[in-house]
TrEMBL record:
Gene3D superfamilies: NAD(P)-binding Rossmann-like Domain
Entry EC number(s): 1.-.-.-
Taxonomic lineage from the root: Bacteria, Pseudomonadati, Bacteroidota, Flavobacteriia, Flavobacteriales
Family: Belongs to the short-chain dehydrogenases/reductases (SDR) family.
The protein's name in its UniProt record: SDR family oxidoreductase
Keywords of the record: Oxidoreductase
Region named Disordered: 260-296
Top EC class for this record: oxidoreductase
InterPro entries named among the record's database cross-references: NAD(P)-bd_dom_sf (IPR036291), Sc_DH/Rdtase_CS (IPR020904), SDR_fam (IPR002347)
Family matches, as SUPFAM superfamilies: NAD(P)-binding Rossmann-fold domains
Single Gene Ontology MF annotation: oxidoreductase activity
Organism: Flavobacterium arundinis
PROSITE patterns named among the record's database cross-references: ADH_SHORT (PS00061)
């Protein structure tokens, strides 16, 4: 099948790493099904992808915090009559704070989005891929997939699931010509920290963040090569290596230092990634301000 006949479905496609992955597929003349919550941002993103290449771009507005949304996305692809050759489960969020102080409904939402929706979409599309003996899946794990992370306890635990789940599937699928790749990015210049209310953390304010385009390129190449895992960036690779050598108690202590509130009165205050900035503006406009509902 030529690229012009293939489709990639990307969740969280209107900002951050998902947006940059969509651009890479478009450059390779692969058609797109973009999934996100905001109709407005989906339309803008679709138009931008069509400017890159003469491809077909479908959009599906879906709230993957809802249990029924994953099946609705799958059903919509059936209505469109498209077969998904590449599935990118990019959508995911976190919540900063001590677990005993965070809202349990928000914690449950994170499990729904980061685990249940990802697992469901993987199930639906994987069955078709195995049947036709062709397909690639890219799962957004995280550099914290193997790092218990105070102040992001639920998020890190969900990403540990994504990594373990993806590695297990990769083994199961060895004889099928279907591959699963887990992308483990470090802290990246996206709207993640805004949505997680973690903008005052040491990591966000005081450390250098990865460029979403560079992270996406690393993930894209690894997926196309059929690699099981990928950790883009030298510092990210080094940190992952060190974490594998240290006991969990030491790793946890290190992660706590990175996630506590920063004492730096200056530091980072804004996103430089264009699509992620647009996402933040949309959230603030819909919620009536920066402290409103960020569940986008």
């Amino acid at each position: 099948m030529s690229n012009s006949q293939q489709y990639a479905l990307i969740t969280g496609a209107t900002s951050g790493i998902g947006y940059e992955l969509a651009k890479l597929f478009a450059k390779d003349n692969i058609n797109l099904v973009l999934v996100a919550r905001s109709e407005e941002n989906l339309k803008s993103t679709a138009a931008e992808m069509r400017q890159i290449s003469d491809i077909t771009v479908h959009t599906i507005a879906a709230d993957l915090f809802k249990p029924e949304a994953a099946k609705q996305v799958f059903d919509k692809t059936k209505e469109l009559g498209v077969a998904i050759e590449y599935l990118v489960n990019d959508a995911g969020q976190g919540e900063w704070g001590r677990f005993h102080k965070t809202d349990i409904s928000r914690d449950i939402d994170l499990v729904q989005l980061n685990i249940i929706s990802l697992m469901s979409l993987t199930k639906y599309f994987l069955e078709e891929m195995v049947a036709r003996k062709s397909g690639r899946i890219l799962q957004l794990a995280s550099s914290v997939s193997k790092s218990p992370t105070p102040y992001l306890a639920v998020y890190a635990a969900t990403k540990a699931f994504v990594l373990s789940f993806s590695e297990a599937l990769a083994k199961e699928l060895e004889e099928t010509n279907v591959t699963v790749t887990a992308l483990q990015p470090g802290a990246t210049d996206t709207d993640f920290f805004h949505k997680a209310k973690a903008e005052n953390s040491v990591t966000y304010k005081e450390t250098e963040l990865y460029d979403p385009a560079d992270v996406a390129e690393g993930g894209y190449k690894a997926m196309m090569a059929g690699d099981i895992t990928v950790q883009p960036g030298f510092k990210n690779k080094m940190q992952n290596t060190m974490n594998n050598l240290m006991p969990d108690t030491a790793v946890t202590a290190t992660m706590e230092k990175q996630m506590v509130s920063s004492m730096d009165e200056g530091g980072r205050t804004s996103i430089t990634h264009g699509a992620s900035s647009r996402e933040r503006e949309t959230i603030n406009a819909e919620s009536g301000g920066i402290n409103g509902d960020r569940k986008n």
